[in-house]
Amino acid sequence: MTYESTQVCIFLLNYNSTKYTIDCVESIVNKTKASLDYHIVIIDNGSIESEFEQLKSSVSGANITLVRSEENLGFFGGYHIGIKYAPKSEYYYFLNNDCLLVNDVASILFDFCEKNPNVGICSGQMLDPELRPVRSFNYLPTLSLRIFGNALLRVFNPKKFPKRSTDYSAPIKVGIVSGSSIFVRKSALDNVGGLDLNYFLYCEEEELGFAMNTAGYDVYFHPKAKFVHYFGASTKFDQYRRDKEYHISLFYFYKKNYGMLYKIANQWFLAAKFLCKGIGNVYNLKLALFLIMGAKSKRSLKNVSVNNTSTFQVNIALKKVKLKAS
């Protein structure tokens, strides 16, 4: 079998979390049926040398490509590098390396998309390490959602705001799916302009969900496809830096997709919310002040990892390593 083209290309990012990547690859190989034509592209996203060497020596197979970036480019930046080295594919499956497939997730989502040509994105049921169901989809972030909440909005539009805690037995249409497992129709991704490299760690699923919905594609949650997610294993930052990074991405999302006034309205609404919580709580007060200052993109972690204050340097020198079958 050659890999000039394939049905599904699965992308994994490794950042100083090699053990998780190895286990994730093993779950993919063990759970994916042989009839599915798939390829795995692993992007080492600026790990230390020992982590990369361990990865290089531990994963092998004719359908695995390992690419190394010298910088941590974040999620979309890392995936962008991986796509450059991927075979021509009908679907992309962006999967966090700290996930384990419980069943044949790739085949289930592939078959669902093949039967439903208007689906642009879908994902499965996330489980915690104790195999308990975790909320796996969400709603597009809007100011009305923040002010009124999903319960009230559901009264007026129940299809747009399905209950997240319900145990579903069949696929349902949703706003966005978990960023830890995003199965994407490649032609749809091309039609919405590909990956926006201004995102570093957060709001990638909001961006893709919004883009797909705007372009007329459907986003679906499929409860039959199940995977375990070890939360936070692939993003080892303290909570304050995570919260800052999340709001930087969120405000960029609002500005890009809704406009500056909408971004400012959300900025001050959230700042006021954290200020109210900030009485006697230094953490919330610090975060409120950060939001009041605009949560500017120059404070993003990407500008610590990458020497560029505007966008990613994705055309850096890369070391490509193709792992041969053992």
The residue-averaged pLDDT reads 86
The first-to-last residue Cα distance is: 15 Å
Radius of gyration: 20 Å
Number of helices: 11
Strand coverage percent = 15-25%
Tell how many strands the DSSP assignment holds. Answer: 13
Please give the CATH class of the largest domain. Answer: Alpha Beta
- Unreliable segments (pLDDT under 50, ≥5 consecutive)? 305-326
The name of the CATH architecture of the largest domain is: Alpha-Beta Complex
Q: CATH homologous superfamily name of the largest domain? A: Spore Coat Polysaccharide Biosynthesis Protein SpsA, Chain A
- Helix percent reads 40-55%
Class derived from helix and strand content = alpha/beta
Helices and strands, in order, run as EHEHEHEEHEEEHEEEHHEHHHHE
**How many separate domains?**
2
CATH topology tier name of the largest domain: Spore Coat Polysaccharide Biosynthesis Protein SpsA, Chain A
Q: How would you sum up the global shape?
A: globular
What characterizes the major β-sheet? 11 strands, mixed
Features:
disordered C terminus; two-stranded antiparallel sheet; 11 helices; 326 residues; alpha/beta; 11-stranded mixed β-sheet; Spore Coat Polysaccharide Biosynthesis Protein SpsA, Chain A
